[in-house]
């Protein structure tokens, strides 16, 4: 994984961490519910974007390597990982 992409994901996650701390402060301060919910939606959206990038990286690197290796066991393992992940999303 390129270091710039890695650094970008870490920076996004640190921003999300700050947003979550901000939401906790909003709850402690008994702020307006809709404002809290709006911030929570922003965090969920930001997490989804990081998740998408990590999934793309996984497909471009780990899955592609398994396919090119010709190792059927490794290919099945990577395929099963993805199926399991998408199964969790549906729950």
How would you characterize the overall build of this protein?
- With 91 residues, the chain is mainly α.
- Helices cover 90% and strands 0% of the residues.
- The protein is built from three helices and no strands.
- It has helices spanning 3-28, 33-69, 72-90.
- Helix 1 (3-28) runs antiparallel to helix 2 and helix 2 (33-69) packs antiparallel against helix 3 (72-90).
- The radius of gyration is 18 Å and the shape is elongated.
Compact description:
This protein is mainly alpha-helical and 91 residues long.
Key structural traits:
91 residues, mainly alpha, 3 helices, 0% strand
Decide which structural class fits the backbone. Answer: mainly alpha
User: Helix count?
Assistant: 3
Oligomeric state of the chains present here: single chain
- Would you tell me the overall average pLDDT? 90
Largest sheet: none
Radius of gyration: 18 Å
| Helix percentage | over 70%
Would you identify the regions where 5 or more consecutive residues have pLDDT less than 50?
none
């Amino acid at each position: 994984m390129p270091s710039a992409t890695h650094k970008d994901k870490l920076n996004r996650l640190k921003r999300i961490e700050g947003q979550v701390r901000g939401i906790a402060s909003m709850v402690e301060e008994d702020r307006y519910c809709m404002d809290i919910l709006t911030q929570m939606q922003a965090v969920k959206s930001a997490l989804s974007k990081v998740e998408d990038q990590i999934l793309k990286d996984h497909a471009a690197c780990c899955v592609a390597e398994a396919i090119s290796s010709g190792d059927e066991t490794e290919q099945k393992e990577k395929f099963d990982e993805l199926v399991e992940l998408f199964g969790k999303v549906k729950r």
